[in-house]
Amino acid sequence: MKEFHGVFPYLVSPIDAAGRVKTEVLGRLASDLVKAGVHGLTPLGSTGEFAYLNSEQRTAVVKATIEAAGGRVPVVAGVASTSTADAVAQAKNYERLGADGILAILEAYFPLKDAQTESYFRAIADAVGIPVVLYTNPQFQRSDLSLDVIARLSEHKRIRYIKDASTNTGRLLSIMNRCPDLKVFSASAHIPAAVMLIGGVGWMAGPACIIPKQSVRLYELCRAGKWKEAMALQRGLWRINEVFACFNLAACIKAALQIQGYDVGDPVPPQAALSAEERKIVKAILADIGKRR
To answer: Are 243 and 281 in contact (CB under 8 A)?
Structure first.
């Protein structure tokens, strides 16, 4: 199985007014990100608005990403559902399409106990022959992954990574200590350089879509142990994360990509696009960040 590390942008899902996936736009974005040096691509993460798409749209997004990657970098496709059976079906489909890994996400309407949460992720990992990345984001998910559940799941031979978006860096260190074979990716809710310092293997997040070269540079500095330079770059890049915390995530990244010339459209309703004033804020920050290499 392939090893995952480095910068994995969470791709947006460009959807037109008729609900069709703009595969050409997505393909161009994915290809440009690969040319910028990213180490992998992740369609259908939070930035990809997975919760707002139907099965046909999700499949189109994953297929277009895999075709654009062309084997140059691994594609880790997001799988999310309130139903275990549906999640398993998604995972099998994306593996069949050529995905190199699965980002496993749990949606929940009714509260779940640890045993039920664990069984959901275990079923996905049992159903495929490719690596699985656990994803946990307590801010948006009704059922979080406890440390005990993470530890048990880490014993599964295909569950080899976790992306934790809890904002709790201490929790990341606890996961590393408790699960030494489980590799940790930073989320945009964390400071990537800090996560790399304590033992992380990379960054899976939406901001890398719009600042790929700077993100790759940050990763390379961390890998080289050049922490002073890395933190200097990280301080400047953190402004992107700060503005995302103020606005809807998909709306913010789609607006930024539109400013950069990608016709990705607006977020899927009932989400709203950024206002003209909000776009000015994003544009100004992008202009400043663009000076950092």
So the answer is: yes
Return the exposure string of 141-173: e unless at least 16 CB atoms fall within 10 Å of the residue's CB, then b.
bebbbeeebbebbbebebbbbbbbbbbebebbe
How far does the chain reach from its first CA to its final CA, in angstroms?
33
Q: Is residue 127 scored above 90 in pLDDT?
A: yes
Q: How much is the CA Rg of the chain, to the nearest whole Å?
A: 18
Q: Is the per-residue pLDDT at 242 higher than 80?
A: yes
Percentage of the residues of the chain whose pLDDT score is greater than 90: 87
- Residue 119 neighbours by CB under 8 Å, 6+ apart: 84
In angstroms, the CA 151 to CA 140 distance is 22
Domain ranges for the chain: 6-212
3-state class (DSSP) for residue 52: helix
The CATH number of domain 6-212, selected from 3.60.40.10, 3.20.20.120, 2.160.10.10, 3.20.20.70: 3.20.20.70
List pLDDT tens digits, range 130-184: 999 999 987 666 668 999 999 999 999 999 999 999 889 999 999 999 999 999 9
**Percent of the chain predicted with pLDDT > 70:** 97
Contact call for residues 209 and 253 (beta carbons, < 8 A): yes
Helix and strand element counts for the chain (H, E):
11, 7
